[in-house]
Design goal:
Layout: H1 21-50, H2 62-73, H3 76-109, H4 111-124, H5 133-140, H6 144-168, H7 172-180, H8 185-223, H9 228-237, H10 241-269, H11 274-281
């Protein structure tokens, strides 16, 4: 008998990238570990107060916190407070991004101005935003403007510094080539500086979004402006411990949502960038 001819393996399109089985197993394993870790954390929160290691008056079981969270979701006052927090966060972030982009590109593209403002930026940037709370209360009381002052101040530096780094990272050869071809300042910013600085800008916006949420809730908690921070302080002073923890959980979920949204926007806007394309291909 003659041996059967060997069967060739199925052809794989050269443009398609096959994910290695080991990598798939690692990703699935990391996801499973993350779920197990979070489940273990909830189990600890449920067990510790029930066995008496911590008094339920200070740390209610996770099931009680979850029940209180479900009750809050049906309360109109909760949604009003959440809306106040989101409004302060969004307005403050928008103002900070606008100021950071305009001043960042202006300072970054004018060498004399960059040197002139360097010491001032390095002096003002490390000042904690919470140190401005007395000034905010003195100027605006418990109004939304107090929250905006703190949010804008904290978020502005995240955007400005990243834009300055992005402008300085422009390839000198590309800059000189654009100048040689007669492109004006605005054209060079549009076609040379902007594509280079955009990844830095989006990183700054992502960092500023998280900082803005932190400062918005902090301002509400300390100043007493309307929002989730104020609701947390009210629940704590009134002895509603489970409600306080439920509101803290909501702020954490807001933080996760903000970070996830910022990353999705970053990946969408930078779909052309080699770093994002390599992540998708992997």
């Amino acid at each position: 008998m003659t041996a059967a001819p060997p069967v060739a393996p199925p052809a794989v399109a050269t443009g398609a990238k096959v994910r290695p089985p080991l990598l798939r197993r690692l990703i699935a394993g990391n996801t499973l570990l993350g779920v197990l870790g979070f489940t273990s954390f909830l189990a600890v929160l449920e067990t510790v107060p029930r066995i008496g290691l911590v008094s339920p008056e200070y740390l209610p079981p996770a099931s009680e916190i979850a029940g209180e969270l479900g009750r809050l979701l049906g309360e109109p006052t909760f949604w009003v407070a959440a809306g106040d927090t989101v409004r302060g966060w969004f307005l403050g972030l928008a103002i900070a991004v606008a100021l950071g982009v305009v001043l960042g590109f202006t300072i970054g593209t004018i060498g004399v101005l960059r040197e002139f403002t360097a010491s001032t930026v390095e002096f003002l940037r490390p000042i904690p935003s919470v140190a401005l709370i007395p000034l905010a209360v003195l100027l605006f009381g418990t109004d939304l403007r107090s929250v905006l002052l703190l949010v804008v101040y904290a978020s502005f530096w995240q955007v400005l510094i990243q834009v300055l780094y992005g402008v300085q990272d422009v390839d000198p050869v590309a800059r000189d080539t654009a100048r040689t071809f007669g492109l004006g300042r605005l054209a060079r910013i549009r076609y040379v500086t902007w594509p280079t600085a955009l990844p830095y800008l989006l990183t700054g916006i992502r960092l500023a979004a998280a900082v803005a949420l932190i400062l918005a809730i902090t301002a509400e908690l300390i100043i007493g402006a309307p929002g989730l921070g104020n609701a947390i302080g009210t629940a704590q002073s009134g002895g509603a411990v489970a409600e306080m923890y439920a509101l803290v959980v909501v702020t954490g979920l807001l933080g996760v949502a903000v970070n996830t949204l910022a990353r999705l926007v970053e990946r969408w806007v930078l779909a052309w960038h080699p770093s994002i394309r390599s992540e998708v291909a992997a």
